[in-house]
Amino acid sequence: MFEPGSFRIMVTDANHRIRDFLKRELEQEGYTVACISSGVEAYNCIRDANCFDLVILDPELLVPYDHSLLWKVIKQNGPPRIIIHAYADFLPELKSSDTLRIVEKNASSIAVLKEEVRRCYSLMEGT
């Protein structure tokens, strides 16, 4: 059986407070979480499918590299699964798929994000 502690999540966010908050909340759920603050480092980890099972990606982290890096990440759209976590005004016209989910940031709750993480974990557990 797939153990929550072995479900590896990479959290990226331009704001270190949000990264730390998400890490703390997800670790309390039993997941293994690493935070990354560099867009290039995030991209390299996403390219290496063995690094993480799930990436929570703040596309603002990739802005300094132009949107081309974001589009490369999205085009890859294979393992690991990716949750784009951004404010509505930042979200490009993307559609959710089996490996790419879109979750709008909400200043008052991360319940929707946690639900998507549970969904991804359940998909992984079923494989």
Task: Give the arrangement of secondary structure elements.
Elements: E1 8-12, H1 16-28, E2 32-36, H2 39-47, E3 54-57, H3 66-76, E4 81-86, E5 100-104, H4 111-126
Parallel strand pairs: 1-2, 1-3, 3-4, 4-5
Can you offer a commentary on this structure?
It is a single chain. With 127 residues, the chain is α/β, with parallel strands linked by helices. It is built from 4 helices and 5 strands, in the order βαβαβαββα. The chain has a 5-stranded parallel β-sheet. Strand 1, helix 1 (16-28) and strand 2 form a beta-alpha-beta unit. The radius of gyration is 13 Å and the shape is globular.
Coarse morphology: globular
Order of helices and strands: EHEHEHEEH
**Lateral strand order in the biggest sheet:** 2-1-3-4-5
**What number is the mean pLDDT?**
80
Enumerate how many helices there are, as a single number. Answer: 4
| Secondary structure tally: strands | 5
Low-confidence stretches: none
**Rg from alpha-carbon coordinates:** 13 Å
β-sheet strand percentage? 15-25%
Going by helix content, strand content and strand pairing, the class is alpha/beta
Helix content: 25-40%
Biggest sheet layout: 5 strands, parallel
Q: End-to-end span in angstroms?
A: 10 Å
